[in-house]
Design goal:
Blueprint: H1 2-13, H2 42-51, E1 52-55, E2 58-61, H3 68-82, H4 91-113, E3 134-138, E4 141-144, H5 145-157, H6 186-198, E5 204-206, E6 210-214, H7 216-219, H8 221-224, H9 227-237, E7 247-251
Helix pairs in contact: 3-4, 4-5
């Protein structure tokens, strides 16, 4: 019996990641475009300033170095955001709100479990990661990371660049941005994030015989369109791919985006 359980766990650990589809949670699909509310993301920005570093094109997080007071500050930021009704914000404020909340909760999860080698080790016994775990309560509604990404951000904004904005604490993931998203800087951050990722080997690696793409483009093919539409998207940031029509393979590194010191 024990051997069977170990075999089951072993098989599960190498199972293919099944990406959720974009399915709108209608409750959150409203905004107040006359709102003058300015959401304060300074606590999150302070965490990024102190613990996120750029190294060889990657942004790495110094999880090991985060102080107890900063861990409390991060949790305080998440509580602050959870007390806001995002439906009362403008659409531009909402996008920044949801992206920052997703990324802050992800970092908080890693800090609570640290040391850990990969976010995929979190969650229940038969879970591949923590994305379906209820993380915050907003307007008395329990919300998971998958809710934020796949039921709010993707279906409401329908912008494939969202995949470059939310970060899953993994080396294969598009970089966690050094700046907190705001209503003002979102477009610039999305463009910078897309360009950086597509021009990195973890995003797009070109050889004579093939293009190796991040598995993000396979998991979320519905957001990037047909192969020709995907190539057009990539070529916008990497012109050498304009006429690419060769073999495409996919890869992803779930190792923690950690900087030891």
């Amino acid at each position: 019996m024990k051997a069977l359980l170990l075999l089951t766990l072993s098989l599960f650990s190498v199972s293919t990641f099944a990406a959720p589809k974009s399915e709108l949670w209608q409750y959150w699909n409203s905004s107040n475009e006359n709102s003058a509310i300015k959401v304060n993301h300074q606590k999150w920005q302070t965490i990024l300033d102190k613990y996120l570093i750029t190294e060889r094109g990657n942004t790495l997080f110094r999880y090991k170095s985060v102080s107890s007071s900063d861990k409390k500050s991060l949790k305080s930021y998440i509580r602050d955001q959870s007390s806001i009704d995002p439906r009362q914000l403008t659409k531009a404020q909402q996008y920044a709100y949801w992206v920052n909340l997703y990324n802050a909760v992800t970092v908080d999860l890693i800090l609570d479990a640290y040391p850990i080698k990969s976010i995929t080790k979190l969650g229940g016994l038969f879970s591949f990661g923590p994305w379906d775990e209820e993380m915050v309560k907003i307007n008395d509604k329990k919300i998971t990371l998958n809710d934020i990404e796949h039921r709010i951000l993707r279906p409401i904004w329908k912008d494939p660049r969202t995949h470059y904005a939310v970060n899953c604490a993994s080396l294969g993931c598009p970089n966690l941005q050094t700046q907190a998203f705001t209503a003002i800087n979102t477009e610039q951050l999305l463009e910078n994030a897309a360009s950086t990722f597509i021009n990195s080997e973890k995003g797009v690696k070109v050889t004579d015989k093939q293009v190796r793409l991040s598995s993000i483009y396979e998991w979320f093919a519905e957001d990037f369109g047909t192969k020709s539409q995907l190539i057009a998207h990539l070529a916008k940031y990497r012109p050498e791919l304009v006429n690419w029509n060769g073999r495409v393979v996919y890869d992803y590194d779930w190792s923690l985006n950690e900087k030891d010191s």
